[in-house]
Design goal:
Helix content is about 80%, strand content about 0%. With about 475 residues, the chain is mainly α. The protein folds into two domains: about 40-225, Growth Hormone, Chain: A, CATH 1.20.1250; about 230-335 and about 345-440, MFS general substrate transporter like domains (Growth Hormone, Chain: A). Helix 4 (about 70-100) packs across helix 6 and helix 12 (about 285-305) runs parallel beside helix 14 (about 350-380). The longest helix is centred in the last third of the chain and has 45 residues, at about 410-455. It is globular and about 60 Å long. The termini are far apart. The relative contact order is 0.14. GO terms for molecular function: molybdate ion transmembrane transporter activity. It is a multi-pass membrane protein. Its main location: membrane. Mediates high-affinity intracellular uptake of the rare oligo-element molybdenum.
């Protein structure tokens, strides 16, 4: 079965290489040198920020277990992180619109560096503080950087379509290549060099500090609504009214919560799904394969976004349906493929099928990120961008906390089935979003045509 891992990894690597090397002038947008410098600066910072995040991920649970904490205590720490992101992160992230997006990005770096430092202590309260800081940092990572990018892009007068280039490249590198390299680097620090499970967190803090220095030296400040007379509560009310009054924004928030909630649930469940009988599986290599599949997805997205057709609202329906089918696979194979029942050993046939299916889901994740960023840049108003984006994360964090709390209460197959349903609902909502967007675009054209007819053939009231 070892050959299987190399075959899957090699297949995705070949597809990614073919997609990147096979791009023609039709798949690329002609841009200016000023934009390229701006784009490269942002991608460098974003990659450093993501390196700081990816280095920590594989070792958080392992570090807590090394400190002697049980599954229940570790679960509480994880729930605290998502709860902090939902509560404190929403408040701090929303301040970015008023206090400045650059300041919010610097705050992310400081909060996450402090969170990394707390990992040196085996004290449960100190680790809990670290999770609270990490939750705040996660909210800022998911809102402040994108908000700064969109505002700065527009402020500099760059073509709106060029945003998709920055989005897709940032995801290709930050959520793909950087994730793979970070995983290998973390394994080098902990395994090969024997620096211990805290060393990836120290390395993450260094990358975050470098990124913060670049932000402070090269980024300008931008704001959403910086009105002095608008306090945080008024800002929240204004964002809530905006979401409630614009169905497109409400649909976008629901779609994001459904997809990301399913994605985070998948992160918790893929390991036990692939090794139900404690099979010996190469977690690091499988993770690298997933990230390679995500890179493939972002590469596909960059091609799609470079063309005016198909519209992002259109092709994302297909992406959600495919992702729904891929997470339904554990439930289907549970009835169609006989389990081995043998403890230990190498990965089973069922596991091999799921690795391929999960890789397809990760490819959908790679398409989702730049495409969702593109839709958010189109529909979310600039003055409350960070606030609304953090509002979107509230139901997501509630959902993940509920899943974590009840993860032992339901069979894994049922959990995957639930995620599959959520993703199918996301496809239905995406369809609704496309219909609304097309209807609103056609209305002004119809009205203009009516005016032209009226001018050409004035009505004779006397008749």
């Amino acid at each position: 079965m070892e050959l299987f891992y190399f075959l899957v990894f090699g297949a995705f690597a070949a597809v990614v290489a073919a997609l990147e090397l096979g791009k023609t002038s039709k798949d690329r947008l002609n841009t200016s040198s000023a934009f390229n410098a701006f784009k490269n600066n942002y991608i460098l910072v974003y990659s450093l920020m993501m390196a700081g995040d990816w280095l920590q991920g594989p070792y958080v649970y392992y570090l807590y277990s090394q400190y002697g904490f049980g599954k229940g205590e570790i679960g509480q720490l994880f729930i605290a992180g998502f709860g902090s992101s939902m509560l404190f992160g929403t408040i701090v992230g929303s301040l970015a619109d008023k206090q400045g997006r650059k300041r919010a990005c610097v705050t992310y770096c400081i909060a996450y560096i402090l969170s990394c430092i707390t990992k040196h202590s085996p004290d449960y309260k100190v680790l809990m503080l670290g999770r609270l800081l990490g939750g705040i940092a996660t909210s800022l990572l998911c809102s402040a950087f994108e908000s700064w990018l969109v505002a700065e892009h527009n402020k500099r007068g760059f073509d709106q379509q060029w945003l998709s280039i920055t989005f897709s490249k940032a995801i290709f590198l930050g959520n793909g290549l950087v994730a793979i390299v970070s995983g290998l680097f973390g394994n080098l620090l902990v395994g090969t060099l024997g620096f211990g499970p805290v060393s990836p967190f120290d390395a993450a803090a260094c990358f975050l500090a470098i990124g913060m220095a670049i932000i402070l030296s090269s980024w300008s400040e931008n704001y959403g609504d910086s009105s002095e007379n608008k306090d945080l509560l008024t800002q929240f009310k204004s964002a809530a009214v905006t979401i409630a009054s614009d169905e497109k924004i409400a649909l976008l928030g629901a779609i994001q919560s459904l997809f990301e909630g399913s994605m985070y649930t998948f992160v918790f469940l893929w390991t036990p799904a692939l090794s139900p009988n404690d099979e010996d599986i190469p977690h690091g290599f499988i993770f690298a394969t997933f990230m390679l599949a995500s890179m493939m997805g972002s590469s596909i997205a960059s091609r799609l976004l470079a063309h005016s057709s198909p519209k992002v609202e259109s092709y994302m329906q297909i992406v959600f349906v495919i992702s729904s089918a891929s997470l339904l696979l554990p439930l289907i194979t549970n009835f169609s493929v006989a389990p081995t029942g043998v403890q230990g050993g190498s990965i089973s046939l069922l596991g091999c099928i799921l690795v391929v299916g999960f890789s397809v889901f990760e490819a959908c994740v790679g398409i989702f990120w730049p495409s969702m960023m593109k839709m958010r840049s189109q529909y979310i108003p600039e003055e409350a961008r960070s606030t609304i984006m953090n509002f979107f994360r509230i139901p997501l964090n509630v959902f993940v906390c509920i899943v974590l709390y009840n993860v032992d209460g339901f069979p894994i197959t049922i959990m995957f089935g639930m995620c599959s349903i959520f993703l199918f609902v996301a496809a239905v909502l995406q369809r609704r979003l496309m219909v609304i967007a097309e209807t609103q675009k056609s209305k002004p054209q119809d009205w203009t045509a009516l005016e032209r007819v009226t001018e050409a053939e004035p009505l004779n009231i006397s008749d």
